[in-house]
Write a structure and sequence with these properties.
about 190 residues; alpha/beta; Rossmann fold; 5-stranded parallel beta sheet; two-stranded antiparallel sheet; 8 helices; 7 strands; about 45% helix
Length: about 190
């Protein structure tokens, strides 16, 4: 049974892509749902749950074992916290979104400005990519999810099913030029 990591900052399309992967026959572990269901958080800071990462990692491993007994279908572990885990995986895919587009997506979700700022800064400095590289010893791909859902989904499915392995190494996407973009810079360092 293959295990795939699908991570990226909030607003990059992970959950939407994962829901579509279910239709392709993949099993999905939604980390946000698991955190809530199993109450894997300690406290709230600034209105956000502080997740107990070791407890989450333990639950994910248990979930993989449980799912593996029921089916030999591939498992996709989805969530922005996936980059913080150390789970044996066959491949990791990091969804990346242009910072100006990410701002629009997070605003549409009614994120407060400080959360938009934190997530845009994380995207600008490749946070999920760096953490994935540190925590996983597998093939790592970045996909620009700034485009349409259908093109992003097609690329994810193509990579996972090994039909097309593009040059999407983990160091290909660079948003540094957006530090000076007027729609982005006003959200930085809040």
């Amino acid at each position: 049974m293959d295990i795939y990591i699908l991570t990226g900052t909030p607003g990059t399309g992970k959950t939407t892509i994962a829901k579509h992967l279910l239709k392709y026959g993949f099993q999905v572990i939604d980390l946000n749902s698991l955190v809530i269901k199993k109450r894997l958080w300690r406290a709230k800071e600034r209105g956000c749950k502080v997740v107990n990462i070791p407890a989450l990692q333990k639950e994910v491993k248990s979930e993989i074992l449980r799912m593996g007994k029921q089916s030999d279908k591939a498992i996709v572990i989805e969530g922005h916290l996936a980059c913080e885990l150390k789970i044996p995986a066959d491949m990791a895919i990091i969804l990346r979104t242009r910072p100006d587009i990410l701002i629009k997506r997070l605003k549409s979700r009614k994120y407060p400005n400080y959360k938009i700022s934190e997530n845009v800064e994380a995207e600008l400095v490749d946070y999920c990519t760096i953490r994935t590289k540190e925590n996983y010893n597998c093939k790592i791909y970045e996909i620009d999810s700034s485009r349409s859902l259908s093109s992003t989904l097609k690329e994810v499915v193509s990579i996972i099913s090994n039909k097309k392995i593009p040059d999407k190494r983990w160091d290909k996407i660079n948003w540094l030029k957006y530090f000076e973009h007027p729609k982005v810079s006003k959200y930085l360092y809040k």
